[in-house]
Design a protein that fits this description.
Blueprint (H helix, E strand, L loop, with lengths): L9 H11 L17 H7 L4 H17 L16 H4 L2 H13 L22 E5 L25 H6 L4 E5 L12 H9 L3 E4 L23 H9 L1
Amino acid sequence: MLGHHYTHTFLETAVASVNAGCNLELSFGMRNNVFMHIPQALAMGNITLQMLRDRVRPLFYTRMRLGEFDPPAMNPYSSLDLSVVQSPEHRNLSLEAAVKSFVLLKNVRGTLPLRARDLSGQRLAVVGPFADNPQVLFGDYAPVPEPQYIYTPRRGLEMLGANVSFTAGCSEPRCQRYSRAELVRVVGAADVVLICLGTGVDVETEAKDRSDLSLPGHQLELLQDAVQ
């Protein structure tokens, strides 16, 4: 609320928030956050003890219902580890969910679908900063699996037995440094080209928005060079 000039201090923000019914602050990494000023607001009489109890009660009621205060032995999830989370059953379910998902694409000249049986004699080029970088494939607030469980576009296509060549063109989504000569070499020798572009959390995430909708850095130039 300070950023919107609704209040001028964290103390004012704490008073306004509690009086409005807010009972939870998300301020990760802030040692002196807004709700740390609640004791001062209470001492000054800006909020009452009963109001504070009313705000806290649903929080702890929910935490109790979630079992946060139960002994670990009572929690059926405490015995789970990555061998369960990344079990074949769960990975197969994730694959099924991915297969049944869909994206609308403009299918010019009947290019799609790319069938595995048709790729054996084809030369594929997979290019772009998102073609083989597992770290940039996940958005904000998304769990990042262990690298061996992540299938980048390049890795997925190589599993089909296709003749795949690759170049990132630029090593990260901001694409400040672009190797045009390498891209032209790889694309020029290919029958089919897949260009993997985007933003990623390095470019935009919570509290870090883009100023426009343009592709970052030299990504548009990379795309144009690949098409030409």
